[in-house]
């Protein structure tokens, strides 16, 4: 099977052929011009020696060049496996030196592109995993209220003799589960706005103390056996009222879920704090609770899809402030922010 010659083979074949032909021609000329045979043979011997030295020098140079080219070819052939290119060329001519340096630049550039590609693929995998987590969380959170609605509705449809009082109770259950689904959808839509960068502020002047009172009233209707204590007074601010209501509702409802005692909300000197005396958060989890899709494995009641505190963090970032968390296991937690 035909094989292309390597660099040194190609050079040597050409040089030897050229040397043989040239040597033969010059030998004939020398024999013709020099009558003495011994002098002619001596001249031809020196000629052949000169050709041999010349060919050997070219061979060494070609071998060195081939070695350099093999190293460059090795980098090109194993680009994905090469971590660092620290090779410096030492060619005989400036043209080969320039080619080598340009190839090294190409290799470095290709390596950077490969690293960018790998980072992009890693981000893409993370996004896909998060999307899967989100779909799983949505399915989990919607399953219970939908099942309740279907169960109560089926009972009402099949049993026409249900007492009026029980019918009203079932209808109330259906309505409350519908409200829960609407709340979950609203939270998901809001999170999607933050993810796509579409969320914007619509600031207005309002009394933060009055807003806390409104959130307290709505939550106490849901948690009728619980108490929320507000400490503070009128505090006028300029902010997005709707988004801050989401922040307060998330923090206050989490406090109600985490604890069985009263929940304290303090408004003082621009600092709003929501304090509970519940289970608390471990030091290893504090940095995780505001991440998307994070769900504590120790609290099965958390139905936030892992988005509640992530949304709070994003809303506060829009208002150029941050959520501060202080917590100790079994001694409760304090969530606060300045505004």
What do these coordinates show?
Helix 1 runs antiparallel to helix 2. The chain is an alpha+beta fold. It has three domains: 7-108, no CATH class; 119-196, Helix Hairpins; 204-338, Histidine kinase-like ATPase, C-terminal domain (Heat Shock Protein 90). The radius of gyration is 41 Å and the shape is elongated. The protein has a five-stranded mixed beta sheet. A two-stranded antiparallel sheet has the order 1-3. 13% of the residues are buried. The protein has helices at 7-33, 37-77, 94-158, 164-196, 208-222, 241-258, 283-286, 308-318; strands at 204-207, 228-231, 236-239, 263-268, 271-276, 324-328, 332-338. A hairpin with a 3-residue loop joins strand 6 (324-328) and strand 7. Helices cover 63% and strands 11% of the residues. It is built from eight helices and seven strands, in the order H-H-H-H-E-H-E-E-H-E-E-H-H-E-E.
């Amino acid at each position: 099977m035909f094989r292309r010659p390597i660099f040194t083979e190609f050079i040597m074949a050409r040089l030897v052929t050229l040397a043989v032909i040239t040597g033969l021609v010059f030998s004939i000329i020398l024999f013709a011009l020099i009558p003495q045979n011994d002098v002619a043979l001596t001249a031809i011997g020196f000629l052949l020696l000169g050709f041999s030295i010349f060919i050997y020098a070219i061979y060494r140079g070609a071998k060195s060049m081939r070695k350099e080219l093999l190293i460059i070819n090795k980098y090109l052939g194993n680009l994905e496996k090469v971590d660092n290119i620290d090779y410096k060329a030492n060619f005989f001519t400036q043209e080969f030196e320039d080619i080598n340096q340009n190839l090294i630049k190409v290799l470095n550039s290709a390596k950077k592109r490969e690293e960018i590609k790998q980072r992009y693929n890693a981000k893409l995998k993370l996004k896909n995993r998060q999307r899967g987590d989100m779909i799983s969380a949505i399915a989990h959170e919607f399953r219970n209220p939908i099942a309740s609605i279907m169960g109560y509705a089926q009972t009402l449809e099949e049993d026409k003799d249900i007492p009026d009082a029980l019918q009203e109770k079932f209808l109330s259950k259906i309505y409350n589960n519908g409200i829960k689904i609407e709340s979950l959808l609203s939270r998901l839509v809001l999170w999607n706005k933050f993810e796509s960068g579409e969320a914007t502020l619509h600031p207005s002047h309002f009394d933060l103390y009055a807003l806390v009172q409104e959130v307290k009233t709505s939550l106490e209707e849901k948690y009728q056996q619980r108490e929320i204590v507000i400490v503070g007074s009128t505090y006028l601010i300029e902010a997005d009222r709707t988004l801050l209501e989401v922040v307060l509702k998330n923090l206050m409802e989490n406090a109600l879920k985490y604890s069985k005692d009263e929940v304290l909300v303090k408004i003082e000197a621009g600092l709003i704090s929501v304090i509970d005396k519940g289970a608390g958060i471990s030091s290893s989890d504090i940095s995780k609770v505001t991440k998307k899709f994070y769900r504590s494995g120790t609290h099965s009641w958390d139905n936030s899809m892992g988005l509640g505190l992530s949304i709070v963090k994003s809303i506060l970032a829009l208002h150029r402030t941050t959520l501060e968390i202080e917590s100790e296991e079994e001694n409760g937690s304090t969530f606060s922010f300045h505004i």
